[in-house]
Write a structure and sequence with these properties.
The protein is an alpha/beta fold and 212 residues long. A hairpin with a 3-residue loop joins strand 2 and strand 3. The two termini are 21 Å apart. The chain has a single domain, classed as Metallo-beta-lactamase, Chain A (4-Layer Sandwich), CATH 3.60.15.10. A seven-stranded mixed β-sheet has the order 4-1-2-3-5-6-7. It binds zinc ion (ZN). Zinc ion binds next to helix 3.
């Protein structure tokens, strides 16, 4: 199994530029799997976060892949910078937690309107789900109610695609509840429980969406 980090541009939180990553996991049985697809969706969010977008097709191409190679998508959650380019892959099934889709439906607004308009093929997961012997998704709520992370077992060890359960390495290593960046925890207590559970997995490699 090979893991490729896809550079999908950047966004701005207040004045700080943040990188945006998705990941291609090349699985020997399942084929090419994407973990998150980068920024897209409602125009107003693209402007608000001053997104410098890179198309996922271009990112895949720079690694010798094309959108047609993608067999499956996993969205860690349904924020615009993680599922925004799902429509580049019409017909490809998107694995997301049922609780996450329900959150977006409940909150309504522009992201829900956009999701409804793009005709996604969601496979709704209820908790931990094994995709293969060496690949599974685990719920990691707190950033959002239905956030999930991905765990792969590779020759490098246990690789964790943490999603936005930790924006960056410093938060993963030493979260300071009084000094978290805006938006890190939608529900602080749940987020802290998730952080502890993910830390207890003692992953060998951690892939961040917003940290190089
Ligand atoms: Zn994000």
């Amino acid at each position: 199994m090979e893991v490729i980090r896809l550079d999908l541009g950047s966004l701005h939180v207040v004045e700080d530029p943040w990188p945006v990553h998705g990941f291609a996991v090349l699985h020997p049985q399942l084929g090419a799997i994407l973990v998150d697809t980068g920024c897209g969706g409602p125009e107003i969010l693209i402007r608000e976060y001053r997104v410098v977008n890179r198309s996922i097709a271009a990112a895949l191409q720079s690694h010798g892949l094309s959108p047609a190679d993608v067999r499956l998508i996993i969205n860690t959650h349904l924020h615009f910078d993680h599922c925004g380019q799902n429509p580049v892959f019409p017909g490809v099934v998107v694995h997301v937690q049922r609780a996450e889709l329900e959150r977006v439906r409940r909150e309504g607004g522009m992201v829900w309107d956009w999701l409804e308009s793009v005709d996604s093929r969601f496979e709704l997961l209820d908790g931990e789900t094994k995709l293969a012997d060496d690949l599974r998704v685990v719920p990691s709520p707190g950033h959002t109610a239905g956030h999930q992370s991905v765990v792969a077992v590779t020759p490098r060890g246990v690789e964790l695609f943490v999603g936005d359960a930790a924006f960056r390495r410093t938060i993963w290593e030493r979260p300071d509840a009084s000094d978290l960046p805006p938006g890190q925890a939608d529900d602080l207590r749940t987020w802290e429980q998730t952080w502890r559970a993910l830390r207890n997995m003692a992953p060998d490699v951690i892939h961040f969406c917003h940290d190089v």
